[in-house]
Give the backbone structure.
Amino acid sequence: MKILSDFSLNELKTELAELPAFRAKQIFDAIMQAKDFSETNLPKAIIEKFQQNYILKPVEIYKTLTSKDGTKKYLLKLFDNNIVECVYLKQNYGNTICMSTQVGCKMGCKFCASTLNGCVRNLSSGEMLSTIAVVSADNGKRTERNFTNIVLMGSGEPFDNYDNVVKWLNLITDKNGFNVSERNISLSTCGLVDRIYDFAKLKFNITLCLSLHATTDEVRKTIMPIANRYTIKETIDALKYYVGENNRRVVFEYCLIKDVNNSQADIMRLKDLTKGLNCHVNVICLNPNGGPLKATTRTEAQAFVKALNDNGVSATLRRSQGSDIEGACGMLRAKTLNKLK
Ligand code: SAH
């Protein structure tokens, strides 16, 4: 079976060459509106034939949880019954969809729930496109784009699914489709350095975020296995290259973990690491995932951010949204999988 949302409009025209060209556009539009075959205007005979070879809507809403603050968390079921998460955040500067790039994750970060059961498989570009389509359609008129920003900060490591993510970027920014501005897309990576260089050369105007979470290689190795492959210095050099190629500010994500990465010395090292780089530090309060790592209080986190600011580092504390509905990475999926077991 082929997934129709994996195809660009031109690829659809080639794939469906025996049909008049307007059918390809009709199918392309149906994908963006998250329609299934029965909701399209395709003739019955075509639908019957297509259903044997093609999947039009590879993603369905399996469960929705709505937080008191309006944040919606989705469990999405893929065509092969795998489950991924997606979050819809209501924000006054435009609504944001936070989406997954893999079923699970193999990076093994100690604080993150997404990686607890390993990585099952990559999402295809079409599954990622349909994720956006399904969630957008659930939040307003189907014919409209009901979101402004997309962040690749759900489950999975985007650069471990590099080709599909790049293809998805081309699909989601296509002016025939959702036409999302590159500037409204953020991609978060734990720091696959070789891929950062490859990606920089593609010159997408998106915001690159690095999950830093430690200021020394020793500490980073204890919470992020990727630190055994690349040093912080190598990683930041790659970000400098990205900024040089794309002239975009990069963002560091720094999840505060009690007695691990929240010392005065960490503040000074963060100052040194970010010096001379066009960047911003997003400080996050850890959402404990049941493991041994403990969160700091919000007051301590605010003091950490203030100290960074006092030292000339651009930093803010990320607002916590949807924590009453298992808002953090992979938590809802992990819980659901445990229940299904
Ligand atoms: N693999 C990519 C994308 C996943 S998003 C990456 O590592 O960047 C990962 C981000 O989710 C982390 O940077 C962190 O900001 C957030 N995150 C993961 N687990 C969390 C937790 N337990 N509490 C708070 N934030 C968490």
